[in-house]
Amino acid sequence: MARGKTAAQLVGGLVLVAALTACGGGTKEPPLDSFTAEEIYKRGEYELEVGNPRKPETAIRYFSEVERLYPYSEWAKRALIMQAFSQHKAKQYEEARGTAQRFIDTYPGDEDAAYAKYLLALSYYDQIDEVGRDQGLTFQALQALRAVIEEYPESEYARSAMLKFDLAFDHLAAKEMEIGRYYLKQGHYTAAINRFRVVVEDFQTTTHTPEALHRLVESYLALGLTDEAQTAGAILGHNFQGSQFYADSFALLKGRGLAPEAKGDNWLSKVYRQVIRGAWL
């Protein structure tokens, strides 16, 4: 949101800084209510971009004061979106969400509403923790990113939201895979299968699908359920024949005198039929 400034604007910012600090020998800032909304706003911009860019908290103060002192001005509207931006930059994610939401509620038809919605989504997305942590924020990020995509499809933020949506979606699949691998390693094959099934059925567009199918081959073979193991191998071969996971599954099946092919009537055979029809990729 904060865009580059021209040389003239930067000079103006320097002059403004001098004005805002020129009191009592230049050691004490005069009361902000003695300046216009524009002057306070530009000081916030200056602090954010030139004066103290690594500490956005200073800019946040100025932007919030614009809104407090001049609540119905055009500068207050600008300051509100910049306050949300600065809070996000300062990693004050909860505050950034609240400020962005206030902008959306107050100015729903404004041209910056799309950006406010995007900032709100980012405040969730940038908090997504390591795979082993709780994934509640990931779900919230997905919902918020979807809102940007659906409500502002023609905006400059929609494409970025789509990319981040895919990454967050992949993150959820990674969580399922991590838990599934743990159960598999512990010999809890049914529990592992339940996790890998979620990836195959609900996260099939992610990068984790080939491994999930391979782990299903391993798990079903361990339980002696050869029809399911062969069918998982067949799906893996149909969609990911060039992957190492398929090579490993093929070797496992061959070692049991089996081949990757659809067998029986189970949930995987239904998936296989969808694959053949092209309805599942």
TrEMBL record:
Stored PROSITE patterns: PROKAR_LIPOPROTEIN
SUPFAM superfamilies the record matches: TPR-like (SSF48452)
Record key words, sorted: Cell outer membrane, Lipoprotein, Membrane, Palmitate, Signal
Gene Ontology biological process: Gram-negative-bacterium-type cell outer membrane assembly; protein insertion into membrane
Membrane topology of the entry: Lipid-anchor
Subcellular location(s) per record: Cell outer membrane
GO CC, one annotated term: cell outer membrane
Claim: Lipoprotein is one of the keywords in the record: yes
Pfam families xrefs: YfiO (PF13525)
InterPro entries to which the protein is assigned, alphabetical: BamD, BamD-like, TPR-like_helical_dom_sf
Subunit comment: Part of the Bam complex.
Function field: Part of the outer membrane protein assembly complex, which is involved in assembly and insertion of beta-barrel proteins into the outer membrane.
Protein name: Outer membrane protein assembly factor BamD
The species this protein was found in: Phaeovulum veldkampii DSM 11550
Protein encoded by which gene: bamD
